[in-house]
Every structure is written in C-alpha cells, then in structure tokens.
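S.,

Sequence below, as promised.
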Amino acid sequence: MQTKKINIAVDGFSSCGKSTIAKGLAKELGYTYIDSGAMYRAIALFAYRNGWMTDTEINESELKKHISEIEISFQANADGQQETYLNGENVEKEIRSLRIGNAASRVSTLGFVRKELVRQQQAMGKKKGVVMDGRDIGTVVFPDAELKIFLTASPEIRAQRRFNELQAKGISVSYEDTLANVRERDQRDTTRAESPLRKADDAIELDNSYITIEEQLQWAMNLMHDV
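The prediction came back faster than expected:
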C-alpha cells in the first residue's frame, strides 16, 4: 500500500452510506475526515453568537462581511474521535444541538458561505491525508483527489435504509413516502444548477445495494493498493 498520503473523495446518492465509508477510511488510514456538515454548523454557531442570526432570520450582509474571520478545523480527542474547532475553540458539543442543526441547513443555502467553506476545505486538502464525502467532492472540491469513489444503490434499497433509520429514532413515516423522498432528492441533486451530483470521469463506482459495511470498507481499502 502507498505510504505517501493522498486525498480521497467520496461522492454518491443520498442514503448510500457515504459518511460511513469516509469515516471508516479516515480511521483506518489515520487521515482527517472533513465533516462538511459540521462546518456549516460552525458557521451557524458563529452567526448566532454574534447576533446575526435568529431562529427565523439571517443578517446576510453582516455574516458576509465577517465570513473571512471564521476558521474551522478538526482535531482528534483522547479517544481518537474527531472534534470540530471554531477559531481554535472546541465547539463539538454546541454545534450538535437541534437548533444549530436547523440553522446550518439555512446558512448552507447562502452562496458566499459555500464558497468560503470550499476554500477552507481545499486548503485542508493541500496538506493531503484527508477524506471527504458529499455530492460534488470529486468534481468541484477536490477535482485532483488521487482516489475518487462514487457510491450508488437502488432507490428501493436506499429508501429501506433511510426508513429503518427513521424508525429507530422513533420517527413515524411510511416506506412509500420515504421512497418518494429519495427519488425527489435524486432528481434535485442531479439537476440543480450549482455543483450537481455526477460521477467524476476518474471515479471508481460501487453499487453497495447488497454488501455489508465491512465489505464496503475492505473494498475501499483494497483500492489504496493501486493508488
């Protein structure tokens, strides 16, 4: 296996287990997992703290004016679990609240926020040794990643996975509605104007409909031998 550190991009459809394989690879390789969701949460926390955001409104002009003051990083704790830092402060617990989670989905729609986070993500990537998952990592964020993985599975399988997750959380929803939502997200992700979901030309595709998480991780680790 190659000892020189590389960047790994994991893209794919919703409910394909992208973060599961990305986190697994990062742990096995001793790489940094870039949690883009945590980064949006940190932006939201910053906005709340400075009074530029409420549960219903965002002062976009003020946030945009100060966006360059935000620096987000990731560090492993004593147990090896990765935690999120906002301007050098550990904010892992604060950003996991439901309030900040809801706010993160709102700030993620702002183009200037996305542009800044992509800039920071790319800066992290310059050091190599990072794994990141999403829908445009191999095409937009890390187009030069040495290993690109594209995950897919049938809509029915992905809907079942999502349905099981929701049931486990005590959320009442029908399988039919879940399947409809998966298909709707596929349509939206692949046709959106900005950074649509598509497989990079040099990405290696895996249909994980009928394989286990362990088998999937082993498959990905095997790819490292050829990098």
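The longest helix spans residues 175-191.

Coffee later?
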